[in-house]
Amino acid sequence: xxxxxxxxxxxxxxxxxxxxxxxxxxxxxxxxxxxxxxxxxxxxxxxxxxxxxxxxxxxxxxxxxxxxxxxxxxxxxxxxxxxxxxxxxxxxxxxxxxxxxxxxxxxxxxxxxxxxxxxxxxxxxxxxxxxxxxxxxxxxxxxxxxxxxxxxxxxxxxxxxxxxxxxxxxxxxxxxxxxxxxxxxxxxxxxxxxxxxxxx
Length: 200
Prior knowledge:
The protein is an alpha/beta fold. It contains five helices and six strands, in the order βαββαβαβαβα.
């Protein structure tokens, strides 16, 4: 296991209701990546998926060196909210990729952050039970860390239904000011989960 390596997995809502926050979401996600890259001696592998009616994986475990990963070209809010499909598909994909690595090349922390401003309404392949199953497996078997950030819903209840502990689920306000606070929250909470994964 590589003690300096973190895999950060960002699953970001790109449904139509996020359109008024397009630029703020881009800035916040890029700000989070910038913070991670600023950590001395650390290596970052980044997975980013955006979802609406479909799921689009923009980066799949890419070792990044620049923070500007989202732009108006690849983040275009539209459509509905296939939350369950996004979570299950991305977790399974990352899990398969990491399973093929040598032990020495595995990250010491895998942190999955799910950001949405609405409830599931469009998945066609996976149900809530599938989400809960894959999250439970990765937490218990591989010590993956999860953070669920939801707006316009009871994030604690939604998170618990996914097998995400109440301390790992938080509400946010879908406004320009709320997105600024969300960025700061993500930065702080990611650091906490990296330390937790490493047993610190």
